[in-house]
Design a protein that fits this description.
mainly alpha, about 350 residues, 13 helices
Amino acid sequence: VLEEIDEAVEFFGEDGGGAEVFGRPGSGGSSSNNRRGGRERTASQQPFQATASGSAEYYRRACALQDAALELLRVGVADRISQTSSQIQDALKLPKVPIAADKLEASLVYTRFHGISRRSNALINIARKRVETLGSGSLAASSYEDFLTLCRNTYCGARETLLTTTIRSHMDILKERHGLVGMTRLASVFLIRLCTVETALYLDFFGDPDKRRQTTKKVKGATSDGDDEKEAEENEGGDDASAFKRLGSSSSHQPGTAIASQILSEDATYRDAEFQSMLGSLCSALHRTIRRGLVSVLDLDVLCQVVSVLREERSAANSTSTTLAAARAVSGVIQDAQERLIFCANTSLHKEV
């Protein structure tokens, strides 16, 4: 049905001149608004053209059908995401009450989104396939592109709202329990793991389902290989290490990197600008927390340890493109730590000399 509607929009819009009368979808705002504005024009405002008047009417009707179809897709994806996010916030009292790190991945923040991901992915792929079939520059495809952009923005806004308070709170807790150096390592690993988990969830919504099924089989094998090693590390780390059983631990680099590599090799949808911007915003919590701690540090040994730990974690984050947002956040903290180290070293030298 969509194929026939799109063909009508293309034919009567381009060849029949309907786009000249009612406007092109996607030009100067959303396609639906442009077309509605065109439909509301009176006959006196539009010069009568005998050769194009019939095509314009058919174009208007085809656009109305396409708008109706896109409205159903929007309700099934964007509105569903917004509604689910609101329900989660009400149930967990977010953002006022942060979620504990060891309960985050098993909380409604992930389980509810996993629950709506399959249907959302099916609807999103309907629109994506239409864009691929029509071509990105075609008249009918612009409406689908607007729909996909709306879905990405809605999804990223919802995820950022649900996670920001919890991540910041967790960074502060790590700093209180482990000090600046210990917090730097644990928080960096936490964010690397978070990027991997969020990438997997994003692909559940926006990824190619065929590639995703192949990736899932490979990821299961990669995660099972590291289970024994992770359990041994967590037993050594005590209660604090158990908090990273799901979202980050000192032993999670190897399996986390394996998971991310498998995702990268199959589907690069996670490179979407909206999603990467969201990850960058979430990872900025590391820079915020460590920067506040660096201001009061005068010990050169502590600053050297912080820089050394950050460089190690940056290497781990740079090992795969799925965690580049964490790598960028760590790089920003390294720059601040090095500046603080140079300042303290110069101050110490001046005093001694």
